[in-house]
Amino acid sequence: MDLRGWGVGSEVNGLVVESRLGAGAMGVVLGARDPETGARYAVKVLPRGASEEQRRRFLREGRAQAAADGHPHVLRVRSAGEARGCLYLVVDLAPGGNLADRLRAGPLPVAAAAELVAKLARGVAHVHARGVLHRDIKVENVLFDAAGEPVLADFGVARLAGDERLTRTGALVGTPAAMAPEQIDRGAGDIDERVDVYGLGVLLYRCLTGRLPFEGTGAALLKQVLTEAPPAPSSLRPEVPRALEAVCLRALAKAPEKRPPSAAALAEELEAALRGAPAAGTERRPVRRVRAALGVGAAVLVAGLLALATGPRSRSTSPADEERRRPSVPPPVLGVRLEEPAGEDVWRVARTVLRGRGVGGALAVRVQAEGAAPLRVELRDGRFECELSLREGPNRVRLVALGPGGREGAPQERVLRCHPGLAPGERAGEVVNLRDGSVLVRIEPGSFVMGAQIDPGSPPSEDDRAGDPENPYYRPHRVTLTRAYYLGKFEVTLAQYRRYLEAKGLPDRDRSLRDGERRFEPGPRHPVAFLTWEEARGYCAWAGLRLPTEAEWEYAARGPEGRTWPWGNDYPFGSKEGVGRMRPVANLTWDSTLALVYQDGFRFLSEVGSFGTAGASPFGCQDMAGNVAEWVADTYSPYPAEPQVDPCVQEPGRPHVFRGGAFSRGFENARSYYRNVLDEGPGGRDERTGLRVARDAP
Q1: Highest mean predicted confidence (pLDDT) among 41-45, 357-361, 460-464
Q2: Catalytic positions
């Protein structure tokens, strides 16, 4: 964590830092003192380098907690701001530890447990009245102030009224063991203040019994939350009064409408139970078992999955005949297949990943994956489609056909291997951008010589500019990149670009390639071509990415040692193997004899990643020497002679640069330092202009 300038003795907003109290995923907590009054506070600091989502979440916590300020049982925010490149929150100090610490010695006295939760319920009611849902009420988030009073803290996943930006549909928000069933079943969508009533019920249960209502991990835990009744508190601790037990179990009802309607109502029921009076609506009811309806996981699946089935229903059969013909046990679903596109290390990103067709006698399909809640999918017109997320590595997925009356077919199991995306704040060698499915390679800061570096023994260039280090547009100069970044491992494909057009409601154009009478229609995994610079930038904006700078592109292609070609410094004509590393494929500018000698199997474009690691750059980026050239952020300007730091030149009136070789150009254009422009001006495009994306690293 980068916390330079935040050591003991440093100042923030009139406070002097005295100690470090703790650390967590969202930063550190420092102890600070007001030198004028002597009052002590806690300062929560988000370090430099935090991702945009971490910053938004931190600011969100401050806004939510400030909105709920003014109640004795809600931790008070004193101030917030940014200092020395770090966001911070100043809150009241709670020196009494947290509720989890107190429960390590065992459950609380019965009356103390009810009183504590009633106080917190009043604080939660205050929070709700200001349009805030906490969504993560648990023992670790209950602190004790200097007077020993409980205060609710950590609004990091709170939701403010009208604010949905930090939660993707289907994402789990909260701590699974303390989450209400609707948080699992509906994600962050259709929930209300009764999720916090449930959280208070979990808190009360743990204070009374010393354990959680449901214990376990992964799918087993989620299944209990969704389908099982918790053990009665009195079965674990006989002295728990029936009236208090009834309030606790009512707060833990599966259906929100069966719970107390608000945190204030729960507080009233608890206070009534303490007085020995009957609480409203505390009649104990049997818990109805429900089915899970959501797949849960830790990463987005990067693969195409297909559920195969046989025996489609006859359209001429009446529903009554169909029902009579159904077997007593439906036949099984016929398996799941993992489809890997051709080429090494190439993956398809799919959010809706499971599609299939029901077999005769099946009304629905139940899907079960490791670490995920069971997913029941109804068949519509004999077909089903659902979303599923899996964790990294191998995952065992089970499909079961469901027939009338809950009859089940034989389960079918397959092992699927997944490549995960990057969770907020994590760092990895490769990540997946969830919006468009681009695989991104992390590139650390570094320094290199940018520009032409010609070996004296190299053959003359077909383009004098690229072979002359004295040319100002290729002048060698030292460049230092001070920030890590991500660059696309592959060029953006036609399928990705068409998803963007569809999302924006934009028309496509003819992207076929021709060589005389030959015509080539690119497929979904070929790189998109015929892009203008503005179109490339528009795609990046939609995907939440950006164009790389020239320096970033060239550093990724050459590495710190300054390779002439992405694979090294060997001139490709030295051997057939050398030429085989090149992306220009049966280059259109070659004569037929040369094309036959150095043919690599593709007349025009190849699918991205077709050559695997052969010819990859030092950082593993593929196709940088050919296929299509790639737009960058800079305009075409002379290089300076002086060293540069994080350069990006954008001069009005100058054309933008594209980098890299292309299938329709010669080997010389594929040198890692080669740069080019189009004569047509800002709206220019041709068959070689494509796109590779970039992103700042957190």
Answers
A1: 41-45
A2: 136
> pLDDT tens for residues 526-554?
899 999 999 999 999 998 899 999 999 99
**77: helix, strand or coil:** strand
Residue with tokens 């945190």: 263
Q: Which two tokens stand for residue 685?
A: 């495009």
CA distance 622 to 462: 24
Buried b (16+ CB within 10 A) or exposed e, 349-384: bbeebbebbbbbbbbbbbbbbbbbbbbbbebeebeb
Dihedral (Cα; 287, 288, 293, 294), 10-degree rounding: 10
**Structure token pair of residue 62:** 């401050």
User: Residue 287: what are its φ and ψ, rounded to 5°?
Assistant: -85, 125
Query: Which CATH class for the 11-92 domain?
Result: alpha beta
Give the start-to-end residue ranges of the domains of the chain: 11-92, 99-275, 304-418, 493-696
Cα–Cα distance, 90 to 75 (Å, whole number): 11
Q: Angle at CA 298, nearest 5°, toward 24 and 47? A: 25
Identify the pLDDT of residue 625.
Answer: 82
Architecture, CATH, for domain 493-696 = Alpha-Beta Complex (3.90)
Spatial distance between the Cα atoms of 435 and 442, rounded to a whole number of angstroms:
18
Q: In the CATH scheme, what is the code of domain 99-275?
A: 1.10.510.10
Sign of dihedral through CA atoms 26, 28, 33, 34?
A: negative
| pLDDT tens, position by position, 103-125 | 999 999 999 999 999 999 999 98
